[in-house]
Each structure stands twice: as C-alpha cells, then as structure tokens.
C-alpha cells in the first residue's frame, strides 16, 4: 500500500482528532490515583470520547475490547484495561486513539504513580525525549530512517535500555495504522522520502532490561521477557504543506519541545 498523502483540510481534521487525544490523555494523567483500576481509566476515556463526539480508534480494532491500552510495569504495550488496582510506585503507560470526521489521532504517555523509582523516572524521561528527537529529525526532504536513527541514538546515549524490535511507529490518517512502518532503531538515510502531507505516529517503546518480549494469553498484552519495566510515548505529527512539522496530538502543536531542538513548527494547521 502506498503512503497516504493528506491535503491541508484533511490534516486539519486530523488535528481535531489529535486534540481529542491530547485532552483525554491529560485528563487521565490528572485523574489517576493509587487505588484506581485501569478499567476506571478506560471509563474516563469513554466519557471523553462522548464529550467530544468522537469515536474510538482502538475499540473493536482486530477485536480489541477497550478504548485505551493500559500497560503496567513489565507490560510495555497493548495492555487490556482490567480490575487490577494501581499501586504506589507503578509505572503506567496509556495509549489512546480517536476518530473525528473519519481521521485518526494516536498518542501515548507513561506515568509514574506515587513514589517513583528514580530509575523508572529516567526510563520514562529517556523514552519521551527520544520521541521528540525522532520527530525533530523527521524533516521535509529527509528519509524515513532518519527518525529511527535519532530515536536509537538518543536512547543509547543515555544508558543501556532495551528497544523493542517487533513494534514501532506507523503512518496514520484515514486508518489508524498505515504505511510506512517506522522502526525505533537503524541507520539513517534510508526508506521513503519525507514530504509534505505525510502524517506519522512516532512511538518509542523501551525497557530497563531486554528488548525481547512475549505476548500474554489474552493475545494482546506485550511484556518484557525478563520482567523489566517498560515505557511508551507516542505523538502523531505531520509535515504541513509549507514543509514544516506540526504535532497533531500536542496541545501547542509541539512548539515548546521542537523549538528547543531548533525546529520551527507550521502555522498552517
């Protein structure tokens, strides 16, 4: 399948979906407390979708039963919300997608609960910053794997972390998952050209130990084989018609984070 190229109006619809995602993830971050369950968080997201008259990207996707993925500790991605009680010191990753006017937004955050192990906090900080480094490297006129190299290089510069091999970022638009697949490792200068109209979800997934994972018996939840804790961050960004990037799932379009990396965002979206 060819990479889907969007016009400005389509990107503006994706921005609407992206803002639903941003506001919902902020709601979950602000609301989560020790003693809640991940089902409680899923219900918050359900109500948020209703508030914004948006649809879920996740529920029903290949049979997935919920509107968020909620992954705790050694569950790195794709955890199904359940009655597990959130504990002091847990590391929680939330992935969420929304559809507005037929267009998708997709983002993820990791949250430390209560008294967080400093090593877990560093894990999250490294993962989040590697995402921004990848977005900053994904410039108009570059190559797809410039993103991959930037993500991996930053992570490796910060210590020894496992970068998941089987999972990565993706194109996004009128479907949640589209071409191209975006590895979080590899040499730059390869793959498709990055051009205006592309929308990409950049999502590093790392652990404090091994990159090797296994899928639990629910056929969804991905855990690290050595039970080391994981982190997951994601943003959807686009290259606007003016050739500048815009982070569709960030409230400020990515301005604060990208400006410190020397990247100017588009004013068109």
Automatic annotation (TrEMBL):
Under PROSITE patterns, the record lists: MAP_1
Drop me one GO molecular function for this one: metalloaminopeptidase activity
Keyword terms:
Aminopeptidase, Hydrolase, Metal-binding, Protease
Q: In its UniProt entry, what is this protein called?
A: Unannotated protein
Q: Name one Pfam family in it.
A: Peptidase_M24
**Does Hydrolase appear among the keywords?**
yes
**Cellular-component GO terms for this entry:** cytosol
* Gene3D superfamilies assigned: Creatinase/methionine aminopeptidase superfamily
Q: Which GO terms describe its biological process?
A: proteolysis
Ranges of residues in domain Peptidase M24? 13-239
